[in-house]
What does this fold into?
Amino acid sequence: MQRTFILWCLVMLGATAGFSQNGYRPAYPLEIGLQAGTSQFLGDLGGQPGIGKGFIIDTDIESVRPTFGIFGRYNIGGHFAARVDLSYLQFHGDDKAAGVGFAATSSRDNVDDAWFRYYRNLNFRTHVFEASIADEIIPYNFELSGGYKNYSVISPYGFIGIGIFAFNPEGLYNGTWVELQPLSTEGQGLVDGRARYDLVQLNIPMGFGVKWSYNDTWSAALEINHRMTFTDYIDDVSGDYVTDESIFDQNLDPSTASLAKAMARRSGEIDPGGINSIVTAPGEQRGDPKDNDAYYTVTIRFSFYIDTDNLGGGRRYGCPVW
It folds into this structure.
């Protein structure tokens, strides 16, 4: 994650140094708008059957979910902008999407990532509410003909910022969605060294887009926004199976302890005979703690320019379009 952040910062600095001052500035600095698109979770329960491929190459069509939001942007000249985004997203992941089916094997050394995920048999979903601020850099504005009064502008841009998001992972069990964080499925809060994870976390949004300002009134953009996070528990999966399941009985009421054990280790649902139980035995790997979770969105954004001085007329910024 650190390498990705540094690389993106260098790209943004390079874009800043490469500005060509072609003179375009939006007619009005303030915009408000709506966005809609798709979201893809990238974690232990998201993406392709292999674990940890990262970003777009890890996209799993079955787990793509919708996202919606509103935003405001303040244009600082023609090459910089600051923005605020409020978004609603959904994430989903299911080990059954690995699609390899059940097959007996005598050793954990003989299984690949897809088989491991299918046999692990975990799933999750979560609703996510996110707020973020970001700086945009627009290296160049391409002024085109054919728009409103023969004038329109295409503006590629990059951005980076900081955000906060709230989530609450649930697992499907016997036809009912069950909240996972209170169950401490990996012993969070019950085992020394495994703290209970927070349901509100920070992230770093970064990405790029192409904006089309059709006229002085409205614009549209296509954008890809990748979020790095500081948690590996968005899907409630990160480390190893607890070494002693009696900790659930010792710290939780009987019904919660029974549910926690059922949700922590689910391979028995597809392997009741325990042929491959060594793969999910106490202390064995359950997730991959080396990489934090991430997610990205692909959205279409529509916005309207606001004349804050005259509410629709009069004062202008930059070159006229008539």
